[in-house]
Amino acid sequence: MNLTYTPEQNAFRAEVRSWLAAHVPKGKLEHFDASREGFEAHRAWEATLKSGDWGMVTWPREYGGRGLDLIQWLIFEEEYYRAGAPGRVNQNGIFLLGPTLMEFGTHEQKQRFLPPMASGEEIWAQAWSEPQAGSDLAGVRATAVLEGDEYVLNGHKIWSSRAAFADWAFGLFRAPGSERHKDMSLIFFRLDQEGVTRNPIRKINGHAGFAEIFLDNVRVPAFNRLGDEGQGWHICMATAGFERGLMLRSPARFQEAAAALAALWQNRKDQCDPGLEAEVVRAHMNAEAYALNIYQTASRLIAGAKIGAEASTNKIFWSEMDIHLHETALAILGAEAELLPPTGEHEWLDDYIFSLAGPIYAGSNEIQRNIIAERMLGLPR
Amino acid sequence: MDFTLTDEQLMFADTARTLLGDTCTPDHWHKMMERGTAFDAARWGQIVDNGFTLLMLPEAVGGMGLAELDLALIAIEAGYVALPEPLLESAGVGTPMLAGLAPDHPALGDPSAIFAVAPAINPVVANADIATAILIEKNGRAFLATPDQVALTPSETIDPLRRLFRIEWDETNAADLGPADWGMALDRAALFAAAQGLGLAQRSVDLAVAYSKDRMQFGKPIGSYQAVKHHLASAQTAIEFARPVVMAAAAGIGHADVHSRARVSHAKIVALEAAEKAARASIQVHGAMGYSWEVDVHLFLKRTLALKAAWGTPTFHRNRIATRVFSQPIGADQTFARENEHA
């Protein structure tokens, strides 16, 4: 164990820091789920990032990345959140589908889909859940039928984040008449193509962040299927591992929030129950523990290990930590907690509401606890 | 930046796991409790033969000159078997302290010597009666006395495999070793308590997992029910997020700055919280059996309670973290920061 950065890593941090200082927009962008304008402003930011070659730093150069390792990725993320840079509108693409494509895609698919993903030219939504298939995702009913060199897609998807404004979706479909985990395929389709209807759904915070999608004889080339036919469930589980684990929730985001919480406490402690300081310290501890855990995982992966069921412990930890952190902020704000803050102030209330989604998406925490119990601890199903 | 352990470290941990797993079984606990003893000379002999007591003794004094991280890996295994013998306080706290203050002390030449430690922060001293010598804190100085130079009054403890004493002593009957680094002693003791906490926690989970696979109710093993699974999954999650804190605390302890002290405190709090959470989940999963002396989970709860409060309570340690949070830069780029460097 050596918990110091190398001179190269320190130099890399300095490079990221100075680029971000010169390029991060001064004013806060409207949220990408709030409106088409907000969405497009974030797409423009992705293009700016790409212009500095910061689109997806861990990907190979030939697919639009920078070829860096996971420790460098963590450093990049730390500087990214420290600089207050905009949220990544293409997170479904770059953090979920991207790593999955890297593992299961053909060379042609990687060449076709990864570079415009890294640059934000094509922004992705996830189309897995259905009205009758949520936690029990194997209950998906949407179908894909191969006709010549095209798939014909039919069905009803729901709770698709970013789908209101995104360009593409990756969906889970099954062969007609097939059951449960068998004969499912992961297939990409454009959200603006013929036969696709998307209806935005207002989230708890009022934003149109997700949508339901109706597919009515939507025709896509067979090229758009990731992996083999019938391999869909297996690929989905790999993607879910990325979603729960390392990539989607980098520690920097929580460490910066914990630092903002400590500052909030310093400003307001005279008006507060002194006992709240313990919760402020706890929020810092949680964020540090999460960071150390991720550094440990990154080191293991660099040494050749693979992520397993422990990704489920990550998902539980970050989602519960996020709620605790924001609960504490609202407690410090006291009777002012319900007020919508002026533009430019930290949006504790909005982030608190968002934190409540954490234990639900990417597989509910109840499902994660089942996975931990069954796959890490070996308890019977 | 590398968070992985070396093959040598993993091998040491493996040796400790095998040795302690073989010599400190439930059968051994039960026999010791029947006899009312908390020290097994044969087991201590094997621990000594494997060199574990020499781990943190400097090479110049005949030791192995290894670091806290190496011994922390063994401490995890000691926690896993609720080891009664004073390996950690003696080899991890007393030995390096005495070696720093009096490198020529003859007792350091005996690998089986036991050094008890009496810091001002603890009201009682563990294993003082069987110690070769006791290191006692007074006004920042360290005094060394043998058990027969002091008055020891046994204190009953809830942990049947732990022996505690109140101590009365006089400076005229002890050797003054001069000013001592009691801060480092506390950091080391807290770190090894945390590492033992990881082992205690995992054993509580493992006992509950084994029981819940066997125990049938409503025609199924109780471990197949989600309510049972979720208790144990929560405990395992707590362990997974305490372990890297303990490892980082061990790796950084030598810096002896506000950051390293805060990380040791963090490790002690969360590892023993994980141990308590796991022990309580385990008791709940065992049902009425868990509330009995028949099942061994109680040993892990009791050791957890002891270590949680010894060498600084959770409140004491939280205050050390608060000092770091409110006096130093914090944020995403500060995870591995040091007091005298600014990123």
Explain how this protein is built.
The complex is a heterodimer of chains A (381) and B (343). With 381 residues, chain A is an alpha+beta fold. Chain A folds into three domains: 7-89, no CATH class; 124-230, Butyryl-CoA Dehydrogenase, subunit A, domain 2 (Beta Barrel), CATH 2.40.110; 245-376, Butyryl-CoA Dehydrogenase, subunit A, domain 3 (Up-down Bundle), CATH 1.20.140. Helix content of chain A is 45%, strand content 14%. Chain A contains eleven helices and eight strands. Chain A has helices at residues 7-23, 36-51, 70-82, 91-104, 107-118, 232-244, 251-268, 276-302, 311-333, 348-355, 365-376; strands spanning 124-127, 143-147, 150-161, 168-174, 184-190, 196-201, 210-221, 225-226. In chain A, a hairpin with an 8-residue loop joins strand 6 (196-201) and strand 7 (210-221). In chain A, helix 9 packs antiparallel against helix 10 (348-355). The longest helix of chain A is centred in the C-terminal third of the chain and has 27 residues, at 276-302. Chain A is globular and about 70 Å long. With 343 residues, chain B is an alpha+beta fold. Chain B is built from ten helices and nine strands. In chain B, strands 1-3-4-7 form a four-stranded mixed beta sheet, covered by helices on one side. The model of chain B has no long low-confidence stretch (mean pLDDT 96). Chain B has helices at residues 7-23, 26-35, 41-49, 68-80, 87-101, 182-214, 226-252, 258-286, 297-309, 314-327; strands at 115-118, 125-126, 133-138, 141-145, 151-155, 164-168, 175-179, 216-217, 220-221. Chain B is 52% helix and 10% strand. The interface between A and B is large, with 59 and 50 residues.
